[in-house]
Amino acid sequence: MTKVLILSDSHGLRDEIIEIKERHQFKYMIHCGDSELDMDTMELDGFLKVGGNTDHDARFPEEQILTINGLTFFVTHGHLHDVKANLMTVGYRAEEAGAQVICFGHTHIAGAEQIGKQLFINPGSIRLPRNRIEKTYAIMKFDSIDEITVTFHTVDGEVVDELTYHASL
């Protein structure tokens, strides 16, 4: 079983990132931007990371592409793709990159949604959530592209059951 930890919009938090990393200790970890930390800070060590609209370290890339066990991930913050309006632009960019899974933040709204053969994952925010009280991050688990589960967790590690999403790409 492959597991991917996905965080976004931590806005300066440090201890919480370390606690989440230590709790799960996954090989694959993604931060979708707005960490407001330096690119090479210890807290972000081991994460595939992108820059968001509040990140000031110019070394953060705007987007990253990662392939894990046959699934290609497109990682971006989302502000440059207008994700607050719709997912069409980021979906087209991910398609150009050959990605099936799109990880993004910016809206601070936790959720997963499959549109066609693309899976969109926004882990929410571990600092400033919108549309719900829980401060969240996501964990994606898969054995194959036909059996994908995305669970959302509070900063304390509790599963937010109603957000659990199952996909088959």
Describe this structure in words.
It is a single chain. By secondary structure, this protein is mainly beta. It has two helices and eleven strands, in the order βαββββαββββββ. A six-stranded mixed β-sheet has the order 3-2-1-9-10-11, with no helix packed on it. A five-stranded mixed β-sheet has the order 4-5-6-8-7, with helices on one face. Strand 7 and strand 8 form a beta hairpin. The chain is globular, with a radius of gyration of 14 Å.
Annotate the secondary structure layout:
Layout: E1 2-7, H1 15-24, E2 28-31, E3 47-49, E4 63-68, E5 71-76, H2 88-96, E6 101-103, E7 111-115, E8 118-122, E9 136-144, E10 147-154, E11 165-167
Parallel strand pairs: 1-2, 2-3, 5-6, 6-8
Antiparallel strand pairs: 1-9, 4-5, 7-8, 9-10, 10-11
Give a nutshell description of this structure.
With 169 residues, the chain is mainly beta.
Q: What oligomeric arrangement do these chains adopt?
A: single chain
Mean pLDDT comes to: 97
Distance between the termini: 16 Å
| Main sheet specs | 6 strands, mixed
Q: Helical region count?
A: 2
Query: Which blocks of ≥5 consecutive residues have pLDDT under 50?
Result: none
